[in-house]
Specification:
The structure is a single chain. By secondary structure, the protein is mainly α. It has a single domain, classed as MetI-like fold, CATH 1.10.3720. Belongs to the binding-protein-dependent transport system permease family. It is found in: Cell membrane. Its main location: membrane. Pfam families: BPD_transp_1.
Length: about 260
């Protein structure tokens, strides 16, 4: 029953995609919107085919992914330890709460002029903006996961005098993994979106810059091809994160009784 249900969902998803493509083609053919503003699917597909065979395309993809991955890795390296510590120790959470709330309240892209003034239009600036956008989803989910470890488990570990570092490695971290993976999934998608947003608003190379360059040159089909590439990368990252989550959590069947 599970496989037939999954197949039905897949068919519905493909049907929805086909309907969107058909509507897009109809609007482009009728001329409701000018071809400059909205080229047809065939024109975009042809532009995408041309791009895939060029080195410029892959250079842009590489520049975007480099900034996104660098910022994401640093966000994970900072967010998980800080989240676990603040999730376990109430004093650490209370003392940092105000600062966290203030930092979270600022839209990252709105702070871009500040980063440009301080760091300049450099790849490091792009990675820094990605880091700030990604660190809070990871940190907060790690914090939530650490809190989800029951008091009984903490008491048992404490009664056996397990060293703190070993307690974090063997008890807190494994218990927080499901929540951490949720944060990683959110942060991974955010990293690409923010990297592209920075490229659109600055002169930094990448997919975002190529979208703006194509638009300014009047080659809208190429601009849409880059936009769809950005969407495809985001979707692929989400699927990979979900696959990694399923693999990592395979050893925790009691935590997901409704799964599989």
């Amino acid at each position: 029953m599970g496989s037939s249900s999954a197949g039905r969902v897949r068919l519905l998803q493909l049907g929805a995609l086909a309907a969107v493509l058909a509507l897009w083609a109809l609007i482009a053919a009728v001329g409701v919107v000018s071809s400059t503003a909205l080229p047809g699917p065939a024109s975009v597909a042809a532009a995408f085919t041309d791009l895939v065979g060029s080195g410029t395309f892959w250079q842009a993809v590489g520049d975007t992914l480099r900034g996104a991955v660098t910022g994401l890795v640093v966000a994970v390296a900072v967010g998980i330890p800080v989240g676990l510590v603040t999730g376990v120790y109430a004093a650490a959470e209370e003392s940092s709460r105000l600062l966290m709330e203030i930092l979270r309240s600022f839209p990252v892209i709105a702070l871009l002029p500040v980063f440009l003034l301080v760091l300049g239009s450099t790849p490091g600036m792009k990675a820094t903006v990605v880091f700030i956008a990604c660190v809070f989803p990871v940190l907060l989910q790690a914090q939530y996961g650490a809190r989800s470890v029951t008091p009984a488990v903490h008491e048992t570990v404490r009664s056996y005098r397990v060293p703190r570092l070993l307690r974090f490695r063997r008890v807190i971290l494994p218990g927080a993994v499901p929540s951490i993976m949720t944060g990683l999934r959110l942060a991974a998608t955010t990293s690409v979106l923010v990297a592209i947003g920075v490229e659109v608003l600055t002169t930094l190379p990448g997919i975002g810059h190529m979208i703006m360059e194509s638009q300014q040159a009047g080659v809208s089909a190429r601009a849409y091809a880059y936009i769809l590439t950005a969407g495809a990368i985001g979707y692929a990252i989400t699927m990979l994160a979900q696959l990694a989550e399923q693999r990592l959590l395979r050893w925790r069947p009691p935590m997901h009784p409704g799964g599989e």
